[in-house]
Write a structure and sequence with these properties.
Blueprint lengths: L4 E4 L8 E4 L6 H14 L12 H12 L5 E2 L2 E3 L8 E12 L5 E11 L3 E3 L2 H11 L2 E2 L1 H16 L3 E10 H4 L10 E8 H4 L1 H13 L5
Parallel strand pairs: 5-8
Antiparallel strand pairs: 1-2, 2-3, 4-7, 5-6, 6-9, 9-10
Helix pairs in contact: 1-2, 3-4
């Protein structure tokens, strides 16, 4: 699991608060730095139209880089459900750590339950939690899978993310429409050929890995 993540567990209710340990945000210093950067780039920040742009810029980045805390609710698998659970097309919005430009797409997250199951809304919360920071798609995919593996102790877990990176579509190669697909598989979803094929087939039907 990502080293910055702290899990405070309420053993009685199995509702750990998922939090992110980070330095405090200094909007005043950030606005000053943004003003200097935009001025150095030749933009008319003293104009009426752009006068508040540095503040808006840092507020936008602060929002995109601040993971929301949430309760990771799990339940006893009292029914003994042992088939694949897949939550597909979870929206992904993150920032490439190399250029701080957005990459957006969808995540498909699946697992083979063990003794506990996860509240379905928490899959989207987990994706958002790890996406709200400067990221690479590869690391984001692994962090989600590792967190779920540690939290649920399932028999297997798989994460597929497909996304378009504006650092590649708006600059450099300008390869608009190109999508990057990454996958992280653990347990039976990695080691059992039939289970792996089932998971990848379902994500392929959603437009995932080929």
């Amino acid at each position: 699991m990502a080293e910055a993540v702290a899990v405070q567990i309420d053993q009685a209710r199995w509702r750990p608060r998922i939090t992110h340990d980070r330095s405090p945000v200094d909007l005043v210093a950030a606005e000053k730095a943004a003003t200097e950067m935009l001025a150095a780039l030749g933009l008319p920040i003293d104009s009426e139209d752009m006068f508040e742009t540095p503040l808006r810029l840092v507020q936008a980045y602060a929002e995109m880089l601040t993971p929301p805390e949430f309760d990771s609710t799990t339940f006893t698998n009292s029914a003994g459900y042992d088939e694949l659970v897949l939550v597909s097309d979870i929206p992904v919005h993150s920032l490439c750590e190399h250029h701080l430009l957005p990459f957006t797409g969808v995540a498909h997250v699946g697992y083979l339950p063990g003794s506990r199951i996860l509240g379905l809304s928490k899959f989207a919360r987990t994706v958002e939690f790890f996406a709200r920071r400067a990221q690479t798609q590869e690391r984001l995919t692994m962090e989600i899978a590792e967190h779920l593996a540690e939290r649920l102790e399932p028999r297997g877990v798989g994460v597929v993310i497909e996304a378009e990176h504006t650092c590649m579509s708006l600059r450099g190669a300008r390869a608009a429409g190109a999508r990057t697909v990454t996958a992280s598989l653990q347990g039976r979803l990695r080691d059992d050929p039939k289970t792996r094929a089932e998971f990848l087939s379902l994500t392929r039907d959603r437009g995932g890995v080929r």
